[in-house]
Amino acid sequence: MRSNRLRRSVLRRVPQGFTLVELMVVIAIIAILTALLIPAVSMVRSSSRQTECASNLHQIGMAVINATTAGKRLQPGKLVQASDQENPINLGMPRLLEDHMDKNYSIFKCPSVTGEEVGYETTVHFGFNGRLGRLTSNDAGKVIAMDYGKEIIDWTDDAEWDKYDSEWTGSGIAPLRRHFDGCNVVFFDGHVERMDPDTIRHGKSHDTAYENATEYWAPELDEKRYVQPVNGSGGDGNSEPGGAWDGPPVPIPNIVGASSSSGGEADTGGQGSKYHPEVDPNDPGRKYTGDTNTYGASVGQPEPCEFLLVIDNEDPGFSKTTNKLANKNDDTAMNGSHFRAYAKFFTSGEARWSAADLRAGTYKVSASWGTTEKPRFNAVAYLLTSDTETQSITINQNLDFEWTDDEGRGWTDLGQVVVGEGGTLDVQMPAVNTTVGHRVCADAMRFEIIECADSGGGGGGNDAPAEEEPEEPVDEYVATMDNEDAAFSRTSSVFKKKLDATAINGHQWMAYAKNFTHGEARWSFTDVPEGSYRVSATWGTTDKPRYNAVAYNLVSDIDSQTGTINQNIAFEWNGDDGVGWTDVGQVNVGAGGTLDVVIPPVNFSKYHRIMADGIRIEKQ
Question: Which tens digit of pLDDT belongs to each residue from 510-521?
């Protein structure tokens, strides 16, 4: 009996385990702690990724600043011809900055990018300001690079901003919202900020991306040359900020070689595309961590016999000298429009497509035009002129195109023309002589090399170079006209003589914009040698405020251009005699021709000054 009591006592002291309620309480506590910890850990990881991304952008920003200080011309979107590939390759910013930073592609990646957007080892996750090569020390507040969806930012395109502000398939995170619904941005002074995408897109108070150009993007050099404030709407220091801007668009994004109607710094050579403006077949290439390919021309191999250039009616290589050719929307034309004239009215002037600095060889020239309107003229003449020969052909623009390119564009061949090394090739569409009202269309011209000259003739081979010919003397011509010269005239009585020590010869003519409603000021140059001329203006700077949108009409015997100048801004450059000048534009002059520079009347309600002093022309 005593033994049984002892056994029961021992059993009562042995633990019986947790009850179900106790287990549920413990599990609930663990779940609550987990729910609290996971977001905190996720937030810490996101913050860490943002910090790493900002660090990468800071390194890129310092590399850009160092490269610019060293005189390197940064050109986003540069192409080179790879030795082992048929098409040019975009080397991108890693190649351009390789001498100024660690040669590792990881710097050009954002750690928040996941899924299929990660891309390849050489993929760049940041977008760059396409005008880096124009930034100066005065542009500290302009953007170098930022979180974006491609390597070059077309910062005037609202549709493109919308595209990269939406979710993507792979990661589900929009490129502009990688970091806490914002994006990292590095500026030209080297500092990095996380910004709201709409702020970096529209600035502090603008309605469109283009109006924000001067706030975060366009270099000061471009602000002076391309972007003009609309009177009374913003940016002129006389009204509330945040207005619209007029003037020709800044050449965006792109740099040397981009096809543009802006009259900017576009070349007609190379590929001429929007984002890939230049092909350099002799670029030595890159060697980055993980990149085993060498890009650039193969040593000892001849340069491929390849060249293709398309000049649209909107491109700088196109010009016209008749107002009868008017712009006409046509979905079948390249870029949706072309120039069109009724044949019976097209009695003077011409349309011209011009390519320069070409490689030596034989070129096939083809034309395209919009086909919506009918009937079109059945005997449109084209004159093909190179530095070595001239040909002419007549085309019936009612007929179907002869062939179609890879992009589905129809073309009709005009002929084959031989061009010398560094030569020119012009296609002219002259006026017609007919009484019918059929349409004459001027749209796009295509230049394709089909046979290169022998290597000894400059065809790009690697044989011994030809014997150098003695250099010809440089054809120089510079002329300056002051407001005192006989060839200066004014037909407006509101222009009064004004003493000003900062003007040439100590005085100039001055008018108040509010009263300048009729007449003009004119500088007339005669017997000007044939060529292309850079036109610049100067004025006295004592009186303020001066008018911020003074028009200068440049009229020659074969060409006309218009430039608009803000006379409040400092001069762009100084001559050898210390006189400050601002470029107005560039205009072509025929043989023994004339060139007139005219300030026409304005429509402005304030007493700001308009100055007429000196004009300088220089042959380019």
Answer: 999 999 998 999
